[in-house]
Write a structure and sequence with these properties.
The chain has helices at about 65-90, 245-250, 345-360; strands at about 5, 15-20, 40-50, 110-115, 120-125, 135, 160, 175, 180-185, 190-205, 210-220, 235-240, 255-260, 275-280, 300-305, 310, 315, 330-335, 340. The chain is of the alpha+beta class. Keywords: Aspartyl protease, Glycoprotein, Hydrolase, Protease.
Length: about 375
């Protein structure tokens, strides 16, 4: 990903559909003692943090304030993505792929998930760059503020700590035959606990519930400001390409693919967004596909962007404008938590000049916009 000049266009209500196919062999790494009710895939709801369906929804936040916040979130994520990609270019990446993305208050979409049996319903932020599922657990030594209920493994019949011999624990410290994880983030916040296996339950699109077993991080200690602007979130639903992500653990059940359809966040009649796994992923009629490119640390989603078109006309940007470089920078990265599109300066300038010429030829006059709404 290349930074700086950015087309600060945050889409007004519209539908967008993104399908991600992972062209790698995935191994089913779900704890054998846990069963699944899933047969051919499943669907769960995605909730935008500013949607009326969000548990932290506030009717007093204006449209402009939402845009400003989304741009701030995107800026912070891009800054950290760039620095992490430079580091990834020099490393092969760990087995776990537990590489922090940014302050996790910076997420945009969340999912309602039931953890354990009987299930404790919590909200996890969706993160396409994270390769770990984790949630705050009770009791905790240091906790971040979270609206109840807080998941307590002592009250679950299906909770099982992972033994140190588990593949996910190969590079993690082992204490009392339980493997421990520690995540430290760019803003010096942290979370830590033990790796375990548990049953995850989701409400399906047909009104039923579906469950699947997966390994996750049960956090017993975290920075109090982990999610400073919301008390509704308990952790992260990582769907990155690493082996410990939720998607990878689904293995053949997900068939290495997921898709999501994002609906307008300001229209009550628009319904909710959906995240689909496996056979439940929708095929777009007459749609086209492009392969995902493997990242250095095997946790990011890249595509080979060659050029940009405006009004159906290609800009003919110099070859290599969006090429990935040996140091890990460059390329075109897809990220679930970034709402704005960021372009390298040469591409940004070409897009702006072409858009200016398009509207000038139709007798439109440019007006001065705010810093967040410029293009």
């Amino acid at each position: 990903m290349m930074h700086h000049k950015m087309a600060q266009i945050i889409h007004t209500p519209t539908y967008s559909h993104i399908a991600i196919l992972i062209f790698t062999a995935l191994t089913l790494l779900i704890a054998p003692s846990l069963s699944t009710t899933l047969q051919n895939g499943f669907i769960l709801e995605l909730i935008h943090r500013f949607s009326i369906h969000s548990p932290s929804y506030s009717p007093n936040v204006t449209f402009v304030e939402k845009i400003e916040r989304l741009v701030e979130i995107s800026d912070n994520r891009v800054e950290w993505i760039e620095s992490s990609l430079r580091a990834d270019g020099m490393e092969s990446g760990s087995l776990m792929g537990i590489r922090p993305t940014v302050t996790h208050d910076r997420g945009v979409y969340m999912a309602k998930v039931g953890i354990g049996k009987p299930p404790t319903n919590v909200h996890l932020l969706l993160d396409s760059r994270s390769s770990l599922v984790w949630t705050q657990c009770a009791p905790c030594v240091h906790c971040f503020p979270q609206d109840p209920p807080v998941y307590n493994p002592a009250f679950s019949d299906t909770y099982r700590p992972l033994p140190c011999t588990h593949p996910f624990c190969a590079r993690l410290p082992c204490i009392n035959n339980m493997c421990r994880f520690v995540l430290r983030y760019e803003d010096n916040t942290y979370t830590k606990g033990i790796m375990a296996a548990e049953q995850f339950t989701f409400a399906s699109n047909v009104g039923a519930t579906e469950s699947v077993g997966a390994a996750f991080g049960c956090s017993s200690e975290s920075s109090p400001n982990m999610f400073p602007s919301t008390r509704a979130v308990s952790g992260i639903l990582g769907v990155g390409a690493g082996p410990a992500s939720f998607l990878s653990q689904l293995g053949s059940l997900a068939r290495g693919r997921f898709s999501y359809c994002l609906v307008p966040i300001d229209l009550p009649s628009a319904g909710v967004s959906y995240l689909r796994f496996g056979a439940d992923t929708e095929r777009i009629k007459n749609g086209r596909t492009t392969p995902m490119l493997r990242s250095f640390d095997r946790t990011h989603y890249f595509v080979e962007l060659q050029d940009i078109s405006v009004d159906g006309r290609r800009l003919h940007l110099p070859p290599g404008t969006f090429a990935r470089r040996p140091d890990g920078t460059g390329g075109c990265l897809l990220d679930s938590g970034t709402s704005a599109t960021y372009l390298t300066e040469i591409a940004y300038t070409a897009v702006c000049n072409t858009v200016d010429a398009f509207f000038a030829g139709r007798n439109f006059t440019r007006v001065r916009g705010t810093i967040i709404m410029q293009i």
